[in-house]
Amino acid sequence: MERYNGRRHSPRLTPTMSTAPAAFDIKTFLATLTGAPGVYKMLDRNGEVIYVGKAKNLKKRVASHFAQRGSSPKQNAMVARVQAIEVTVTRTEGEALLLENQLIKRHKPRYNINLRDDKSYPYIYVSTHQEFPRLAFHRGSRARPGRFFGPFPSAAAVRDSLKTLQKIFPVRQCEDSYFVNRTRPCLQYQIERCTGPCVGLVGAETYGEDVTNTLLFLEGRGEALIDRLAQRMEQAAQRLEFEKAARYRDQISNLRTVLAKQLVAGEQGDLDMIACAIKGNIACVHVVFVRNGQQIGDRSFFPRMQDEHDAAAVLGAFIPQFYLDKEIPRELLLSHEIRELELFESVLGQQAGRAVKISWRLRGERAKRLELARANAECALTTRLASQQTIADRLRHLTDMLGLAEPPKRMECFDISHTQGDQTVASCVVFDRTGPLKSAYRRFNIEGITGGDDYAAMAQALSRRYQRIRAGEVEAPDILFIDGGKGQIHAAARTLAELGVENIRIIGIAKGPDRKPGMETLFQTGCSDPIVVKPDNPGSLLIQHIRDEAHRFAITGHRQRRAKTATRSPLQAIAGLGPKRRQRLLRQFGGLRQISRADVEALSSVEGINRQLAQRIYDLFHDHGA
């Protein structure tokens, strides 16, 4: 692959780039442009990438953009903004498709169809390398030892599966640090969701049987698993072990119920069903995920696009952006035919290391399932359109309420959450003209301030956030909402002034009498009088939505931080006291209370605990008055 990056020419490239300030000279540019395959980037006068495309023949494809016949108004508007074109020549059209996908994700060009989906997908993780493996939710790199099953369409789908598995096979799902420090069984054992391996209430062989059954289920071998359990049930009954036989019977019953819900008749492998629905310049792509013959969930996506496109164009943009950095199933079933189908199959197959089939002419049960997926896409799209119309109406009223020249493109809101000053968390939520922009939400763990000092907490959060905005890493908002009155907005204005951040309107949302929703008072910098708002004003409802979302996001983060602190053993803070030594201590003394009462001599009598370490353990409790 030959690349041309920025404004520097690669010695092996012949294409040129025009930077004329008035109008782009397409004829001169095309005269030197190659007919080889490659990728091109269109730039505006500010050097911003506004469109990325790939081509089997660069010269023909670029020329087609500037042909006047049949061009839509938005296509003409894009071409009018072009001040430069950069190209990268590739060896094949397949390489061009891969590079185009990378550039679209990097630059998010205004005139491309962009999939706004930057999260990695979650998996179920089984730590098969351990004596007593655990089941867990996992997102991120899969380099650690063990087995991974997925990906799942959402975190909720993983948690639902984990909950179901725990009811059928009592395999532990607790953290390893929690597991090694137990001295008595937890609540999960009491409600029969775990067999208590942490305190030796089950042997490795018996526990391993539940792990094996779990793996069989996750591998999609449900019927084989039922046969296996039925055989074990009969053997247990013959040995007059009726309690064990009853347990197998219940597992079989629960398994049949789950499989009846998840099993996709006639399917055994991995496939995705992808349906598209379009109204105007808004599209919905609905994906149904089938793994090992079982439906593990579905999800709707709303790619961003400036112009109207047909379903073939939307699916053609969605497939590479969604699949080229994820695990690719063996088959994709589409609601519409796409262009360059063979190219997509080839590139996806190369990425997957095996053949990938794309089908759209379907019959029988597959056609019915895909039609259902299309109905779900249309339903999700209708809901989305209604929501956007509501937001657009509220945004228009907000613009009038605040006396703005035009509707704000981006709004941010900060909130602080803590419990009596402890585990303080600040939230930042972001809204644009379409509603919540959840991929841009951020939380900040606040450290080094006096407990309960909300001004200092807000200043720290704003400083950390707006340093990135000043550096150009994050887009600046038009409006910054602060949950508070005059004091909070003055503190926020002072922080932004210290950072040199300007041209952001700061508005404080002060709670009204009895903290009743709709009775808030708005304050803004540079104006001593509050903004009078009617409770039923749609603009006020939008502000309430933004403020409530910031509050929810802050409380969730605070609860997570508080829960993490609550489950952390104080022994974990002692240097040199690893999990094995902590476990020996807890087993020797029977719990933290007994350890806190022990003297240095008693502590140092435990295997692996020398006198210096025993002294540190003793000081931990007695320095805090324990």
Q: Can you offer a commentary on this structure?
A:
The chain is an alpha+beta fold. It is 44% helix and 18% strand. It has 20 helices and 19 strands. It has helices at 26-32, 58-65, 73-81, 93-107, 155-168, 176-180, 187-190, 204-218, 222-238, 242-262, 311-323, 341-352, 364-402, 454-470, 486-499, 538-566, 579-589, 592-597, 600-604, 611-622; strands at residues 38-43, 49-55, 84-89, 123-126, 135-138, 147-149, 271-279, 282-291, 294-301, 331-334, 357-359, 410-419, 422-432, 435-436, 442-445, 479-482, 505-510, 521-524, 527-531. The strands form 4 sheets. Strands 12, 13, 14, 15, 16, 17, 18 and 19 form an 8-stranded mixed sheet that branches. Helix 4 (93-107) crosses helix 12 (341-352), helix 9 runs antiparallel to helix 10 and helix 14 runs parallel beside helix 15. The longest helix is centred in the middle third of the chain and has 39 residues, at 364-402. It starts with 25 loop residues before the first helix and ends with a helix. 33% of the residues are buried.
List keywords for this structure.
globular; disordered N terminus; eight-stranded mixed sheet; alpha+beta
